[in-house]
Amino acid sequence: MTASRSRYSAIPPAERLPDWIRAPIGNASALAEVQAVVKQQRLHTICEEGRCPNRGECYAAGTATFLLGGPICTRSCAFCQVEKGQAPVPFDPAEAERVAEAVQTLGLRYVVLTAVARDDLDDHGACLFTGAIAAIRARDAAVAIEVLTPDFWGGHRDEGEGQAAQRRRLGLVLAAAPVCFNHNLETVERLQGEVRRGATYRRSLALLAAAREMAPSIPTKSGLMLGLGESFEEVVATLEDLRRVDCQRLTLGQYLRPSLAHIPVARYWTPEEFERLAAIARELGFAQVRSGPLVRSSYHAATS
Q: With the C-alpha atoms ordered 103, 106, 111, 114, is the resulting torsion angle positive or negative?
């Protein structure tokens, strides 16, 4: 366990989960089938690595989110369950084919591809997405593929050079023509340094803005976790910032602390507050809004 993760270990959870947070069980057979195939192909899913409460429901609906690049992330975000480290597994060029085989075996019709941050790679992991997209479409061109990417930033002291490199990496992914480009802000601007170590609010907004500019036919999407200490007004201001860069799709969900080593929950937002924020988001012009305590980035992703 790294020092950045253990800093919270002495802080117990503030309270029991409220009554409105009840994870759906989903389809047990679908859950077992996906888990068996993922294990056989030596793959990772953010559904399992991130302990998503909706994985049984999504698996039964023919949707899964594959985690590319191995199980170790080069960033140390305070909320995330994925293992952290500066020595990730070597790049595996065969991973894309294993993902494609799993998609074909499971008969998935909508696939979300995400990845750990791979700041150790020259393209910061862009090839992980393009390779998997190509492999899946070579077997079945009808599978819809959404991408949920890191910020493709790192190792650049000069802001201009960093932004140019970020756009080049983004361009590679957009050229593969995913049906949706997703990049999460995760939290409001004030809390970024504590919650998203290694990423910044403005760089993430710039990535979403660049995606709209470079590929205007591909919808963009972003998500926030609530319960980290943000105010209602800060959330609304963040939604306004997302609309300023023409982000079309939005997910809002409750942060649930994975372990005592992660940042504590500041409070639990009520279903009524999620509904109020959803209404505001629609008024602001988001074309698709998913808002609720158990909503996650890929929840009902196939329903546009």
A: negative
The count of C-alpha atoms lying within 13 angstroms of the C-alpha of 101, restricted to the half-sphere facing its C-beta, is 12
Alpha-carbon gap, residue 146 to 207, rounded angstroms: 16
pLDDT of 264 reads 87
Tell the residue number behind the tokens 């294993």, with chain if given: 98
Under a CB-based contact definition with an 8 Å cutoff, are residues 60 and 26 in contact?
yes
CA distance 4 to 153: 20
Residue type, 105: T
> What is the SS3 assignment for 199?
coil
Residue 84 near residue 75 (C-beta atoms within 8 A): yes
N residues, the chain: 304
Strands 83-84 and 110-115, sheet pairing: unpaired
Largest CA distance in the chain: 51
Tokens 């340094």 map to which residue? 193
Q: What are phi and psi of 175, to 5 degrees?
A: -65, -20
DSSP state of 21: -
Q: Give 14's pLDDT tier (boundaries 50, 70, 90).
A: very low
Indicate the pLDDT class of residue 121, thresholds 50, 70 and 90.
confident
CB-CB contact of 235 with 284 (8 Å): no
Q: 3-class DSSP state for residue 25?
A: coil
